[in-house]
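TODO from last week: model Transmembrane protein 63B.
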Amino acid sequence: MGIRCGSQGLSCPAEGSSTGSRAAASFAPQASACAGAWPGAGVPPQGMAAALGLDPGVLCGLQGWFVGSQPSPSAFLPALRLLEGGFFTVFLSLPGRDDEIRDKCGGDAVHYLSFQRHIIGLLVAVGVLSVGIVLPVNFSGDLLENNAYSFGRTTIANLNSGNNLLWLHTSFAFLYLLLTVYSMRRHTSKMRYKEDDLVKRTLFINGISKYAEPEKIKKHFEEAYANCTVLEARPCYDVARLMFLDAERKKAERGRIYFTNLQGKENTPSMINPKPCGHLCCCVIRGCEEVEAIEYYTKLEEKLKDDYKREKEKVNEKPLGMAFVTFHNETITAIILKDFNACKCQGCACRGEPKASSCSESLHVSNWTVSYAPDPQNIYWEHLSIRGFIWWIRCLVINVVLFILLFFLTTPAIIITTMDKFNVTKPVEYLNNPIITQFFPTLLLWCFSALLPTIVYYSAFFEAHWTRSGENRTTMHKCYTFLIFMVLLLPSLGLSSLDVFFRWLFDKKFLAEATVRFECVFLPDNGAFFVNYVIASAFIGNAMDLLRIPGLLMYMIRLCLARSAAERRNVKRHQAYEFQFGAAYAWMMCVFTVVMTYSITCPIIVPFGLMYMLLKHLVDRYNLYYAYLPAKLDKKIHSGAVNQVVAAPILCLFWLLFFSTVRTGFLAPTSMFTFVVLVITIVICLCHVCFGHFKYLSAHNYKIEHTEVDTIESRQNGRPCH
């Protein structure tokens, strides 16, 4: 039986956590068993304009506009009047300089926005080449219908397999890789990490004896290392419950003060229902009686004070076997760090014994893991108690459950199909209401489009990372990997889940069906669908980010759970959160990867990708300045995003290799050239990421100030170890 190619199922705009383009994920092509019909009445789009839902004149003039034409300012006046009070107001209220953002939002916000600007510059260059050169080359073919408005004529599928112009596409794919690396090197060369002097002179030590005294730790370093002066050594204790009790005590204190002041003004006592959502209850039932507010909060405060004092007395009995040690200068700090992390042998154990002292044995120095201390604002102090074997088991269980769930339910469409097998939506059909019966399946698809990435996001949260940087970095990598499968790879191949993907990959008939399956990637309508996805990301996704509906829903839930007016006021005063850089990077890089992957095979996607990045930059700049709290992270989250950018042109090379292999065979010159370039690129990337080689060919170009001693950055930062 033949395999029909295409995608099936177009969902509605979705929203998720406070991350970019989350709403637009619902417009990702959700493939279902490689069906051949497109959304709607099952009829493929007639022509390029119909496929994109745009006026034909717009598309005819797109090439000339993008390459060089400059419209007069008066042409924008109607649009500005239309946008007045919307995006235009946001644009006018944006902070003008990065210095303003750095002062209010921190250095990480500046690095994030600089990253976006370099991506915008990269897309401008790629857009000029794709729309100005690749698009006319695709138009010059005659393989598809000779219709000026046909979307298929804009794709690589319009060229014959023997056309020598296909060398242009392969060369441009390699050129895009070079442009991407150059753009990211410029970005990283401008990044400056200004850490507090105290942080650069402080080491975080894990694996210390739980009964170690600060004086012994000081004595060890001063004996083992010449000219070493330890200013302070602070052991770590389990303070998770202590922090919780202190936060609850402060809430009770604020509630008591609020109602005391209110009674002084109105001279009448206030009554409250102390149960969650008590202010929403309109009837008095047993167990939900109202109590006098001042008396309630006074008793609660006294109880929490007593619990806090008792817990504080027990804290010294809960050592964690960790310590923060501060030295007198950065040089000795670097020497000690190098001594604990340098490789001194050629065997499997790549760590030598550090310098010893009279206290080495009692302190268990041979078991120490030493790294630079994270910034105090970067640490989750309440998570330090979850460490070692317990942390790894917790992380393993969470990720195994996540993998099993997403292995079979990778896309929203497959979830709906699975639910239909069990007649979950059958009761809705019995209502015989056409509005409900037609809207309910779409609503479910919309919900699952937002839910799946959110599950991946929260899995990193429940892993209980020690630092915010570690949590954001894990979120970025996991969300990006999942989104690439959900949005790009599986729909392009006409598959619906990882389960189907691996069954197809390891099937005995893989080679027999591979050619037909890979042809799914290069259908003209497939490119049109991804153009629609990028357009939806640009307008719907960015609009959802600007509205911050997930934050609004969380705010409403917290208001409902508040027990009194005092707690509702506390919720209103503390409704802002830190910007989630990890999730934002993942969603933004997902759209960028889609654009770069199809920039050669479907070049008309690039202008819309540029539109997405421009709007994304404006929205994030506004939100960072006005809506979110400043965050203090390390450079690993930003360098990880740079690595993900390089994955986009590599996928573009993969797409061209598939096309060339399907059309001309693997031994064709264009296929072999693409294959060699792809293999060399992957080898260089792996050697750089895993072993640190080819630094001058990488996308990283940090300006490092040379010190007297080469320092080694430990991998311990943000990740618990044994």
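Done. Residues 153 and 445 are 32 Å apart (CA to CA).
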